[in-house]
Amino acid sequence: MKKQIFISALLLLLTGWSSIYAEDGSRLWLRFDNVSKPATITGVKGTAMTELQTYWQGSPVLLKRQKGIAKDGYTIKSQDAKIVITASNDAGLLYGAYHLLRLQETGQSCNQLNISEQPVYDLRILNHWDNPNGTVERGFAGKSIFLNPDPERMKIYARANASVGINGTVLNNVNAKPEALSTESLQKAKSIADQLRPYGIRVYLSINFASPIKVGGLETADPLNAEVVKWWKEKVNEIYKLIPDFGGFLVKANSEGEPGPQDFGRTHADGANMLAGVLKPHKGIVMWRAFVYAPQSPDRANQAYLEFMPLDGQFADNVIIQIKNGPVDFQPREPYSPLFTAMQKTPMMVEFQITQEYLGAANHLVYLAPMWQEFFSFVKPQTLKAMAGVANIGDNVNWCGHHFAQANWYAFGRLAWNPNLTSEEIANEWLQQTFSLGSAVANPSLFTLHSSLLNLMLRSREACVSYMMPLGIHHIFAGTHHYGPEPWYAPRGLRADWTPPYYHKADSIGLGFDRTLTGSANVKQYPDDLCRLYNDINTCPENLLAWFHHVPWDHKMKSGRTFWDELCHKYDEGVHETRRFLAIWDAMQPYIDAQRFEEVQRKLRIQARDSEWWRDACLLYFQTFSKRPIPSDVEHPVHNLDEMMRFRIPISMYENPESGYNK
Ligand code: GCW
């Protein structure tokens, strides 16, 4: 034991760590130590000044307010012996201060600075799917941080968000309980808003559209009913008395059983505009979700477009339609939602999912920036008003359940600030700050390891697609928890679009959903050139092949293999990638503190085993349709199909990542 302590101490010294903190991930990427002798910070007082006084180790800084700089933007300039940060508002100064601290932590030179930044989106917002009882829908990192908000944790949460430019947070689940608007909940929201305000973060709430009935005791929630409008007016006044800078409402209406204007014969526009009218005098906004689909629809991917396109141009100017990046539901790979290129007269924002509902929960290392960037390669950032991300945050010590899941929170914020940053730049920044590798990258051997770790992150999303659902397959997840594979899941009586066979349509001919012009015609919702590209099985990108086509098992792929053989290779490649990830991580051992090293290692082992589970379950199941052998150069399943179909994963494995996992 003593020897171990000695060795760790030595390692700490060797790698230059002098931290007094437990390495449990609780400090996120904000690992600055308090300075012993504060630098001289002058100018505008506020959070920016406090942060720099506490953590900045360089030359004197002057914080200056100046009109003419874009909202939240800033400049950082070296002037004589000092650094001048200029912004038009306090948030801008704060973002400038964090920029400077980031330079410090990533070991960059702070001489000759001449930086000018402004965010691409005004609204950079987290969506928490937190329930009043403290559970978090699709959360894998413990309970809600808002259940009993601990001021110290709230402060770290606020700083972390502000350090990447996040400036809004929706406190509660879009499946909103009516009590979110009770006076007691509003008091709580006020206290959270007060704690977040100094960091430039506004608070928003999800609302239940039937609140006038359920909270107000009215007989209807019809948006065109005068009593209903009056009720909302009074409620909104009550909110703004408590929270003068309240941001507005997020609404999931007529979706998955939630109430909405259609229950009263009205449209999404009627519902959204009524709320927008009530919020307008207070400068509040409505984020109205387009995540709608009906059980009888022959193609769920068509639905949002069909419901929202006829309403294009009918929404009030303080309504933003919040659309998931893909047309179905946060799959590891989807094409972009065609609404983004079709709607011309309606402000839109994208909703990404940071929490890994369909990407291995908090057990799999999947760096999501490449997925989000793929979206931006189709949808021009400037056609959107804002960016929202479903948070992966809970009360676990390390916030996100997996140390590397913190990178997704970080990346979301950075991309909401500037969607043109590369995944690599962001991962690099995050790694250096999170593992304090800033100055160490100058060390050649560590530099190589750092690069392979960076590379691991960049490959991780494609690996996940490969071992879960390559070549455009989608939604083949286990029924309710969405953690593992259950392509066969189809309990009698369950609505078809909640079962995998609806999506994969495996049969003796092939695999995949025919969305071509002769199928569901989903391709028609895309611009002409893409429509043509996707519609033809010979030009459709192979990574979306089974999304748009029912692909014959013997279809010739670019590699020369048949579709079936290619599928086998892809799954197997995914498995090999997860093993390589483990090897890369193992080589990092001397340079990573023991706790985080072991926690990540344990998870990478889970991921490697899970990838085998995915490969075996999917290949063995699809093989019952393809009736073709698994190619000889592919590692053969280590499980059998019966075993896979009987396997039930313990909830503790994905819901409480702290509990570890032993299959
Ligand atoms: O992805 C699905 C989830 C639901 C979620 C819904 C939505 C909040 O499985 O848990 O509900 O989407 O986005 O509304």
Structure description:
The protein is of the alpha/beta class and 663 residues long. 38% of the residues lie in helices and 10% in strands. It is built from 21 helices and 15 strands. It has helices spanning 2-14, 47-55, 90-105, 151-163, 183-196, 211-214, 226-242, 268-279, 303-308, 339-342, 369-376, 406-417, 423-434, 444-468, 500-504, 528-535, 545-548, 563-587, 594-626, 641-646, 651-655; strands at residues 41-43, 61-65, 74-79, 82-87, 114-117, 123-127, 168-170, 202-207, 248-251, 285-289, 319-324, 348-353, 386-390, 510-511, 551-552. The strands form 3 sheets. It has an 8-stranded parallel beta barrel with strand order 6-7-8-9-10-11-12-13. A 5-stranded mixed β-sheet has the order 1-2-4-3-5. Strands 14-15 form a two-stranded antiparallel sheet. Helix 8 links the parallel strand 9 (248-251) and strand 10. The longest helix has 33 residues, at 594-626. It is globular. The two termini are 30 Å apart. Mean pLDDT is 93; it is low at 1-19 and 657-663. The structure holds 4-O-methyl-beta-D-glucopyranuronic acid. 4-O-methyl-beta-D-glucopyranuronic acid (GCW) binds next to loops.
Bound molecules: 4-O-methyl-beta-D-glucopyranuronic acid
Q: Show unreliable segments.
A: 1-19, 657-663
Shape: globular
Q: What structural category characterises the helix and strand content?
A: alpha/beta
Strand order of the largest sheet: 6-7-8-9-10-11-12-13
